[in-house]
Amino acid sequence: MSRAFVFPGQGSQAIGMGRALAEAYPAARAVFEEVDDALDEKLSALIWEGAIDDLTLTQNAQPAIMATSMAALAALEAEGLGMAQADFVAGHSLGEYSALCAAGSMDLGDVARLLRIRGAAMQEAVHVGVGAMAAILGLDYDTVTSVAGEAAGDEVCQVANDNDPAQVVISGHKGAVERACVIAKEKGAKRALMLPVSAPFHCALMEPAAAVMGEALAAVVIRDPSVPVVVNVRAEAVTEADRVRALLVAQVTGEVRWRESVQWLARAGVTEFWEVGAGKALSGMIKRIECDTVQRNIGTPDDITPLKA
User: Any idea what DSSP says for residue 226?
Assistant: First the structure.
C-alpha cells in the first residue's frame, strides 16, 4: 500500500480548528506558538476565539490553515504516524506550502511569513469588485475551458482550479466570469455559482502577486523535499529545491491541477490519502476522482485514535 498526505487550501478555515489538537498534544501546541512568534502576533487566538470574518481574510486564512495542518502532522508524529508513513505529499493551492513544510523543504516560520505575504499580495493585486471566481458544476474540464475562452473577450477569464470531474473553478474579470456562468448553464452545467472570494485567484490578474512572491521566495532557504511533492501547476512529482521555488511563483497565476495530481498519484500506486488539517474538502474531491482509493481525515485527536490501534 502506498500513501499520500494531502493538505487543504483556502476555504477550509473554521473558528476553533486545531484547538483540540493543541490541547491534547504539546507538539501541536508548539506549532501554533511557533507560527505566532514568526508573525509576531497571536494568530492562534484568532483561529480559536476570533470572528470568522477576520479569519477568512486571505492574509489570515492562509497561515492559519497551514498552521492547523502542521499541528495535525505534529500530533501524528507524536504517535509515530507521521511522515514515515507518507510516500508522497501534495497540497491544494496554499496547501502546497504545507506539503513542502511537511517534507522538510521549508521551515515552519518561513512558511508562515511567506503565506502572510502571499495572502496580502493576492488581496492587493486586484481592486475589490474588479475580479471574481465561480464554480462550474456538471461540465468537464475541456468544456469549461472552452466556455471561459468564449466569455473572456478582451478580459481575463480562465480555469483556476480543476478540482474533480464535475467541479471546475474559473477566475478573472467579474464581467467575464458572469458571462461564463450564463454560457455554462446554456451548455448544460448543473450549477454555476459565483464564489464569495475577495480576489480572483490563480489567473493572469495575479501577476503583481507573483512578482511579490518571486522576491519573497528568493530570500528563504528551500531544500530538496524528503519525499516527492506533487505540485499544482505540473500535476507531477518534484524533488529538487530549485524547481520548487520556480513552481511556487508560477502557482500564483497558474492553474491548480488537482484532478490530474490525484490521477498522477493513483498511477504511481497510491491507494490511501490522508487529508491532514481542517475540513474534508479534498477527501470528497479525491473520492470523485479515484473512487477505489481510501480517504482518511486527520484534523482532531479523535481522528488519530483509530490509527493507533
Answer: S
**Strand 157-164's sheet: what is its strand order?**
157-164, 167-173, 131-137, 191-194
d(CA 7, CA 74): 14
3-class secondary structure, 168: strand
Give the three cell numbers for residue 183. 454560457
Cα separation, 130 vs 177, whole angstroms:
11
pLDDT in tens, the chain (309 residues): 799 999 999 999 999 999 999 999 999 999 999 999 999 999 999 999 999 999 999 999 999 999 999 999 999 999 999 999 999 999 999 999 999 999 999 999 999 999 999 999 999 999 989 999 999 999 999 999 999 999 999 999 999 999 999 999 999 999 999 999 999 999 999 999 999 888 999 999 999 999 999 999 999 999 999 999 999 999 999 999 999 999 999 999 999 999 999 999 999 999 999 999 999 999 999 999 999 999 999 999 999 999 876
Cell of 123: 488581496
- Would you give the DSSP letter of residue 126? S
**Which residues carry out catalysis?**
93, 202
DSSP assignment, residue 256? B
Residue 132 sits at φ, ψ, to 5 deg, of -160, 165
CB 222 within 8 A of CB 106: yes
